[in-house]
């Protein structure tokens, strides 16, 4: 079922459990540096803001990719990466107006939310309903 | 080779005197028997710090330790820092939330040990494998938030996590704290002063490695279940989540447990102005949680009216409402919030700060100590302006602040005369906001806590006043019966949770069984609840052995005179106290249960039974 990741930053408590859940789902271990969702926390914590792909209409990353490695998956609504085709050029990272794409320097492939195939793990863990998988 | 997948297998040791950086392996038997966190830190301290070492000598070491679950999705994880305390001369461990300690583990280390003393003010930069001691002279005198921000700017890395001291730590005020990213404090025992004595302004860490577990799916699903337990528990909601720790103010004030005017009373008029409910209306901006924690006990707050308006701080914790508030005779939330903010920024423990200022107020009012500076301050209970001035003077060791920065015990010795009769500390650590006259088991817990007067090594109040059944069933509030058993049970459980460096608040919803399940799935070892509590008992005996080696025995397992000789003046436990004979009766019970001798020293049989001998 296609969904959209809705972020409600005013509800975020900065616990970063979403980062842990995401990294485990994607790598089988815990490493916030490899999470597709990143929580920005200011000091003092007046700002706590989860940042991830929100499946925007612009799709700047898809348009920016010179080799067609990114596409919108109609079944889930997620942006998906073809790792075989990706050259690691980083134009998707630069193009995203929401800073929601990061580069994994180890593999030189972008880290971008794929909605866990339509059932995002981060949403299940968020203790304050700051994340929502909205059916569309 | 790591002892189990959830460890990184390395202890990083930095000698600030020589500049040497060494990486030691985490030994398998240490991990298996002492697990991590408190156990690992206690063993390192026991091994590395010779008896009789001055806490400010460069031979003292500062240890930051993780646990086997640190950096995973296990609920409610904290960090710990440990050293020999300049307030007490005991083993001292202080715990903090936030995001700092996880970064150490992601960088590849189970613990960080800092030895020696840098020539000039420095900070340590750990970027995965890269370890560097950097110049911090430009940061001299900066408060904690400034330091945190300056270092990240200098490193050009906003994702680095910083633990630092403020001016109070640099000046070695004996109750200086360590501020840990983001604005969580390792407050107790003066470990920030130890950091200052090493000329270490801060530790900055950036880690990009992974933490693995032995049984990934089982661990993940178990942790998910435990997060749900904490979210859905009415007790967790009521005690921690709804109004934060200050949700306990009304309870404590009603039960005669709220420290009032240097612990003279257990109730203060208008105390509810400091409650969580009151703060939620007056001060709160938004809720905030520590790493991977569904309890969400904090609230970012702002002072909205009066001379301090616009100040942003983490909400006033229960302990701070008690010590900087009621204990100084103050119930104005804006004043207490600003005093809290000053302590956080200058780098002072709010509990000891409130203890020492309340003590000075009583000495002044009784005419025992009247130096001109205190006359000028009009240091009477309820004088908020004087409290704020004294906090600044203590942090910078200016004037009379230089003496107050030594803590209650040393102030009492310097002032002399009757001062010691009003000195509220245990082993040199100022008593927290759970005094024992209406809760005798709490008296035993405070008297026997390894780091001195501390409520987080055992909290019998829950059993005695709230009526939670103990390991052998319910107990009567003011009776001495069964209290030693509760204290031992609490201490072993706390110490076990502290080896994981789990937050003690999570004990409201999670049992030793739950912890054992997570630990088993993370390590691949089969550990049940009994074995888990046994680990706690082992570590508790190890910290006791550190203190015994420093000369602490039964004579030091004592309470302030006030709690033993002055009956509580009001509330449900009015007229009650924990007399010397009450305390001695409970100590006898307690040592017997612990298989310690009548002088409070663990017996050889006990140490052998716990398998501790190889570590001593």
Give the SSE map.
The complex is a heterodimer of chains A (136) and B (616).
Chain A: E1 3-7, H1 17-27, E2 38-41, E3 48-51, H2 60-64, E4 70-72, E5 79-81, H3 91-95, E6 102-104, E7 109-111, H4 121-125, E8 131-135
Antiparallel strand pairs in A: 1-8, 2-3, 4-5, 6-7
Chain B: E1 10-15, E2 21-25, H1 28-34, H2 37-48, E3 62-65, E4 79-84, E5 91-96, H3 100-106, E6 111-115, E7 122-127, E8 130-135, H4 144-155, E9 161-164, H5 167-170, E10 178-180, E11 184-186, H6 191-197, E12 200-206, H7 216-232, H8 234-241, H9 249-254, H10 276-282, E13 284-288, E14 298-302, E15 312-314, H11 318-325, H12 333-346, H13 350-365, H14 372-377, H15 384-395, H16 401-404, H17 408-415, E16 425-426, E17 429-430, H18 440-448, H19 461-464, H20 483-500, H21 512-523, H22 529-549, H23 561-565, H24 580-594, H25 604-609
Parallel strand pairs in B: 1-6, 7-12
Antiparallel strand pairs in B: 1-2, 3-4, 3-6, 4-5, 7-8, 9-10, 9-12, 10-11, 13-14, 14-15, 16-17
Helix pairs in contact in B: 1-2, 2-20, 2-22, 7-21, 11-12, 11-13, 12-15, 18-20, 18-24, 20-22, 20-24, 21-22
Output the keywords:
heterodimer; A: 136 residues; alpha+beta; two-stranded antiparallel sheet; B: 616 residues; Aldehyde Ferredoxin Oxidoreductase Protein, subunit A, domain 2; six-stranded mixed sheet; 17 strands; 40% helix
């Amino acid at each position: 079922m296609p969904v959209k990741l809705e972020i409600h930053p005013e509800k975020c408590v900065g616990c970063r459990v979403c980062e842990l859940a995401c990294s485990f789902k994607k790598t089988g271990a815990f490493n916030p540096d490899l999470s597709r969702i990143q929580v920005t926390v200011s000091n003092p914590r007046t700002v706590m803001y989860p940042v991830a792909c929100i499946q925007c209409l612009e799709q700047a990353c898809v348009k920016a990719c010179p080799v067609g490695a990114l596409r919108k998956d109609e079944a889930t609504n997620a942006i998906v990466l073809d790792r075989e085709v990706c050259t690691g050029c980083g134009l998707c990272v630069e193009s995203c107006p929401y800073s929601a794409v990061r580069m994994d320097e180890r593999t030189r492939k972008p880290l971008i939310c794929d909605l866990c195939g339509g059932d995002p793990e981060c949403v299940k863990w968020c203790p304050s309903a700051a994340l929502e998988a909205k059916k569309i | 080779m790591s002892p189990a997948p959830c460890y990184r297998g390395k202890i990083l040791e930095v000698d600030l005197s020589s500049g040497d950086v060494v990486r030691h392996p985490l030994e398998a038997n240490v991990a298996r028997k002492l697990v991590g966190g408190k156990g690992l830190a206690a063993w390192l301290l026991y091994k590395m710090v010779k008896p009789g070492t001055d806490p400010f000598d460069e031979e003292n070491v500062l240890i930051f330790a993780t646990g086997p679950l640190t950096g995973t999705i296990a609920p409610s994880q904290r960090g710990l820092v440990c050293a020999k305390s300049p307030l007490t001369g005991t083993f001292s461990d202080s715990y903090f939330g936030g995001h700092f300690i996880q970064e150490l583990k992601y960088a590849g280390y189970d613990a960080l040990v800092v030895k020696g003393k840098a020539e000039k003010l420095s900070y340590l930069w750990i970027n995965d494998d890269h370890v560097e001691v950097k110049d911090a002279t430009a940061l001299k005198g900066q408060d904690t938030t400034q330091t945190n921000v300056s270092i990240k700017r200098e490193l050009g890395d906003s994702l680095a996590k910083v633990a630092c001291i403020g001016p109070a730590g640099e000046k070695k005020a004996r109750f200086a704290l360590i501020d840990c990213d983001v604005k969580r404090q390792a407050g107790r025992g003066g470990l920030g002063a130890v950091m200052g004595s090493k000329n270490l302004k801060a530790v900055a860490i950036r880690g990009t490695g992974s933490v693995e577990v032995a049984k990934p799916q089982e661990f993940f699903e178990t942790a998910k279940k435990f997060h749900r337990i904490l979210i859905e528990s009415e007790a967790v909601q009521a005690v921690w989540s709804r109004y934060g720790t200050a949700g306990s103010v009304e309870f404590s004030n009603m039960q005669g447990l709220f420290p009032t005017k240097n612990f003279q009373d257990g109730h203060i008029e208008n105390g509810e102005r400091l409650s969580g409910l009151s703060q939620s209306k007056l001060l709160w901006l938004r809720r905030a949680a520590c790493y991977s924690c569904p309890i969400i006990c904090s609230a970012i707050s702002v002072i909205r009216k009066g001379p301090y308006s616009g100040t942003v701080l983490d909400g006033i914790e229960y302990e701070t409402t008690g010590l900087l508030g009621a204990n100084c005779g103050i119930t104005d939330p804006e004043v207490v919030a600003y005093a809290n903010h000053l302590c956080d920024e200058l780098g002072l423990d709010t509990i000891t700060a409130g203890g020492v200022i309340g003590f000075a107020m009583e000495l002044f009012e009784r005419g025992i100590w009247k130096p001109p500076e205190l006359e000028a301050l009009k240091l009477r209970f309820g004088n908020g302006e004087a409290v704020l001035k004294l906090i600044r003077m203590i942090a910078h060791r200016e004037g009379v602040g230089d003496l107050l920065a030594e803590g209650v015990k040393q102030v009492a010795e310097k002032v002399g005369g009757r001062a010691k009769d009003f000195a509220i500390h245990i082993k040199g650590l100022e008593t927290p906001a759970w005094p024992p006259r209406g809760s005798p088991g709490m008296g035993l817990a405070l008297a026997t806590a390894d780091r001195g007067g501390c409520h987080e090594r055992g909290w019998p109040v829950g059993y005695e006043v709230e009526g939670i059944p103990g390991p052998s069933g319910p107990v009567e509030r003011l009776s001495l019966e069964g209290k030693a058993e509760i204290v031992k049970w609490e201490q072993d459980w706390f110490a076990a949770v502290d080896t994981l460096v789990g937050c003690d608040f999570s004990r409201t919803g999670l049992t030793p069984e739950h912890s054992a399940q997570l630990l088993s799935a993370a390590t691949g070892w089969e550990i049940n609840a009994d074995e888990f509590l046994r680990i706690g008992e082992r570590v508790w005996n190890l910290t006791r052995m550190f203190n015994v080696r420093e000369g602490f025995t039964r004579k030091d397992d004592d309470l302030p005179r006030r709690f033993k000789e002055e009956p509580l003046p009001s509330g449900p436990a009015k007229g009650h106290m924990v007399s010397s004979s009450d305390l001695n009766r409970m100590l006898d019970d307690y040592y017997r249960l612990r298989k310690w001798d009548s002088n409070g020293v663990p017996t050889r049989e006990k140490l052998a039974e716990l398998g501790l001998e190889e570590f001593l």
